[in-house]
């Protein structure tokens, strides 16, 4: 006798696709944000001061501009890499 409704494995596939779509949107937003940070740090004059916010607080500490720029670029690269991995995994799922 045929069952009605969706099978559990079908729902798992939908959840996975939905999750990756949400993750892609989140990563896309973070990438845009990080691009702005990198651009702002790149365009600062050499004598400008840069402050780093202490995690989970409202305390700021003086930071080195070049270090902050380097860290921001690394974060941007990692976000782009993760985004690309998600896109590649989606493409391989479509091919299967």
Mind sketching the topology for me?
Layout: H1 8-42, E1 50-53, E2 60-63, H2 65-95
Antiparallel strand pairs: 1-2
Helix pairs in contact: 1-2
GO cellular component, one term: RPAP3/R2TP/prefoldin-like complex
Coiled coil: 24-96
InterPro entries: ASNSD1-SEP (IPR054148), Prefoldin (IPR009053)
Q: Can you walk through the features of this model?
A:
- This protein has a two-stranded antiparallel ribbon with strand order 1-2.
- A hairpin with a 6-residue loop joins strand 1 and strand 2.
- The two termini are 29 Å apart.
- The chain has 2 helices and 2 strands, in the order αββα.
- The radius of gyration is 21 Å and the shape is elongated.
- The protein has 96 residues and is mostly helical.
- The protein has a domain of 64 residues.
- 1% of the residues are buried.
- It comes from Ursus maritimus.
- This is ASNSD1 upstream open reading frame protein.
- Keywords: Coiled coil.
Short description:
By secondary structure, the protein is mainly alpha-helical. Helix content is 69%, strand content 8%. The chain has helices at residues 8-42, 65-95; strands at residues 50-53, 60-63.
């Amino acid at each position: 006798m045929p069952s009605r409704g969706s099978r559990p494995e079908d729902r798992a596939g939908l959840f996975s696709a939905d999750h990756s779509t949400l993750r892609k949107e989140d990563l896309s937003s973070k990438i845009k944000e990080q691009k702005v940070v990198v651009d702002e740090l790149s365009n600062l004059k050499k004598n400008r001061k840069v402050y780093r916010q202490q995690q989970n607080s409202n305390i700021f500490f003086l930071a080195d501009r070049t270090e902050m720029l380097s860290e921001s670029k690394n974060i941007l690269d990692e976000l782009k890499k993760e985004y690309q991995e998600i896109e590649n995994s989606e493409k391989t799922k479509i091919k299967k």
